[in-house]
Amino acid sequence: MSKNAYIKLVPASLKQNITVEEVKELFNFFMTNTAKTGEQLSWGYSEAAFPYTIEEKEDANGNWFYLKGKDPRTHKYILVGVGTEEGEDHTHTSYIQFTLTDISTHGDKGKANEYCKYLAAKLKGELHLFNGRVMYHYPKK
């Protein structure tokens, strides 16, 4: 049974809409920063911080992509997609969805949690974790 985590872009977030390409840019920014950290430490930190390749299938229609683990013993797949949901007051809320498949490993779950927290903090969103808990990264009024 697959598990999902969501980053909802609420009115207090930096953005109210997001595309798959923008999510990929955020992952590229993450990879660049971890590579710089690795250079400062003289250690290959970027490989440990992001042990995936970004893959997209033709039938994704620009709505999702997946992170494919470089070492299948420790990391397999994390699906990442974007979408919108309609609220009770007929407003639309954009979200980023992380999905762990049936074959995802514990390493995938740990990395998915890390990436969710990073993106939620970067976008100042509302993070709904795999375990049902909610973390609020946007400023409260």
Q: What are the key terms here?
A:
7-stranded antiparallel beta sheet; TATA-Binding Protein; 141 residues; 32% helix; alpha+beta
User: Number of domains in the coordinates?
Assistant: 1
Q: CA-to-CA gap between the ends?
A: 38 Å
The overall average pLDDT, rounded, is: 91
Shape: globular
Largest sheet: 7 strands, antiparallel
Give, in order, the helices and strands.
EHHEEEEHEE
Organism: Fictibacillus barbaricus
Pfam families: DUF1885 (PF08968)
Protein name: DUF1885 family protein
InterPro entries: DUF1885, Rbstp2229-like_sf
Summarize the SSE layout with pairings.
Elements lengths: L2 E7 L10 H22 L3 H5 L2 E4 L8 E6 L7 E10 L5 E9 L5 H18 L2 E3 L5 E3 L5
Antiparallel strand pairs: 1-5, 1-6, 2-3, 3-4, 4-5, 6-7
Provide a descriptive summary of the structure in words:
InterPro entries: DUF1885, Rbstp2229-like_sf. This is DUF1885 family protein. It comes from Fictibacillus barbaricus. It holds the Pfam family DUF1885. The protein is an alpha+beta fold. The chain has a single domain, classed as TATA-Binding Protein. It is built from three helices and seven strands. A seven-stranded antiparallel beta sheet has the order 2-3-4-5-1-6-7, with helices on one face. A hairpin with a 5-residue loop joins strand 6 and strand 7 (134-136). The chain is globular, with a radius of gyration of 15 Å. The mean pLDDT is 91.
Task: Summarize it.
This is DUF1885 family protein. The chain is 32% helix and 30% strand.
